[in-house]
Design a protein that fits this description.
With 245 residues, the chain is an alpha+beta fold. The chain folds into 2 domains: 3-34 and 165-240, Elongation Factor Tu (Ef-tu), domain 3 (Beta Barrel); 40-159, OB fold (Dihydrolipoamide Acetyltransferase, E2P), CATH 2.40.50.100. It contains 4 helices and 12 strands, in the order ααββββααββββββββ. The protein has helices at 3-13, 17-20, 70-98, 104-129, and strands at 24-40, 45-50, 57-58, 63-67, 132-134, 139-144, 151-152, 157-174, 186-191, 197-205, 215-222, 234-240. The strands form 2 sheets. A 6-stranded antiparallel β-barrel has the order 1-8-11-10-9-12. Strands 5-4-2-7 form a 4-stranded antiparallel β-sheet, with no helix packed on it. Strand 9 and strand 10 form a beta hairpin. It is elongated. It starts with a helix and ends in a 5-residue tail after the last strand. Residues 1-24 have low confidence and may be disordered.
């Protein structure tokens, strides 16, 4: 949101602060999801499928993207065979040691080889676990950054998702509002896109005042039904200035 535009609208509406202290004040805010993140690839691999389309809902733990990991799966199967073989070798060396038919060095070498093979298998297991990109929270798909059958590299953006379990919002206010605005302070917001008014409350204030505009960010959340609201919607905040909740 354009900060200069926000402040221009804000100060036009409350240019006489003495009046603002006794009358409802309207300022502008933008809605945000509780979490919004772009998930990137942890593999260099070909995308097999993107499970959810843009706008689709998903739950925490759902598979969002599947990769073609036939080679990685074959490698872990090979690693398991090697581990099983070296374990048998180690077991045999231990039995031979009890019969005084081998030495401690041979047993130790067998144990080291087994430990190394197990470590290699663990590494391959981690790689295979990344063949499916899981949703870290419940939400909706905002945008797919890649396409099925596309080869992607490590760190390449794949999908943008947003968490709508709670709708948050932010707006700019004069810095001297810090004298009275606190977490829990109530307000209402009329959403431009729906024409409806929703109740909310302040959750926190910004950590820094803009020294040029003498403004501070205020963050809030909606306390009522927000099922049809999505990130990016804008609206007008209605708030009693200088009043206790």
């Amino acid at each position: 949101m354009n900060q200069i535009g926000l402040l221009a609208g804000l100060f036009l509406l409350i240019s006489d602060f003495s009046l603002a202290e006794t009358h409802p004040t309207r300022i502008y805010a933008q809605l945000k999801g509780q979490q919004e993140v772009i998930l990137s690839s942890e593999l260099s691999a070909r995308i097999k499928t993107i499970v959810f389309r843009e706008g689709a809902y998903f739950s925490k733990g759902d598979i969002l993207v599947k990769f073609d990991c036939a080679l990685e799966q074959a490698k872990i199967e090979k690693a398991m065979i090697i581990v099983n073989s070296l374990k048998r070798t180690h077991d045999i060396q231990q039995r031979l040691l009890k019969l005084n038919s081998t030495g401690n060095l041979e047993v130790e070498i067998a144990a080291v080889n087994l430990a190394k093979a197990r470590a290699d298998m663990d590494i391959q297991s981690v790689i295979v676990s990344k063949c499916s990109l899981l949703a870290p929270f419940s939400g909706r798909v905002v945008e797919a950054k890649a396409r099925p059958h596309q080869f992607v590299s490590i760190g390449q953006p794949l999908i943008k998702i947003v968490d709508y379990s709670k709708i948050e919002l932010e707006f700019l206010a004069p810095s001297n509002w810090l004298q009275w605005i606190k977490p829990g302070y109530p307000f209402a917001i009329k959403i431009n896109e729906t024409g409806n008014t929703y109740r909310g409350k302040v959750t926190r204030t910004g950590a820094q005042i803009d020294p040029v505009t003498h403004s501070i960010k205020i963050f809030g959340e909606l306390t009522g039904d927000s099922e049809n609201l999505i990130a990016g919607m804008t609206g007008s905040i209605l708030i009693k200035v200088g009043k206790s909740p």
